[in-house]
Amino acid sequence: MRRLTEDFYPGLVTAIFIMVIMGMPGNYFPKVVSFWDWLGPDKIIHLIVFGILSFSMIWGYRKKLLHQSITALKKALLLTLLLSISYGAFTELLQKHVFINRYGSIYDFLADAIGCLLGVIAFFFYFKKKIKK
Question: Is residue 46 part of a domain?
């Protein structure tokens, strides 16, 4: 049971960090008002942070996944992707409805989702390389 809890630590710590950042008052953050603003540095940060989230969520299970089939790996990656994208949607909803001076944005959510996908893809290639060794 103790080992199972330890597997959650990387993703849990990352999720808490993201929630703290997303909950900070938005006075110092740029507001996205058009599609072209979507390409700004704010979205790059969303991509990176949520890529790290999805990567770290599955990182704790890397040793267990070495002994599983490719189907189990794909299921774990899909579950991680769904959970991390859901977390991105949750943070955007909190920004829109709960956090002070924050604004939920569909563009932020899209950047979150793409970041989650990139994190899962990065883990897959890392893991694939690890299996070959």
Answer: yes
- SS3 label, residue 115: helix
In single-letter form, the type of residue at position 131 comes to I
Residue 14, token pair as written in the block: 């990352």
* Contact of 46 with 111, CB cutoff 8 Å: yes
The pLDDT tens digits for 2-46 are 555 667 788 888 888 888 887 777 655 555 556 556 567 888 889
Domain count, the chain: 1
Which domain covers residue 84, as residue numbers?
2-20+39-132
72-81 LR contacts (CB < 8 Å, sep 24+): 73/124, 73/127, 77/120, 77/123, 77/124, 80/54, 80/120, 80/123, 81/54, 81/116, 81/117, 81/120
pTM of the model as a whole: 0.81
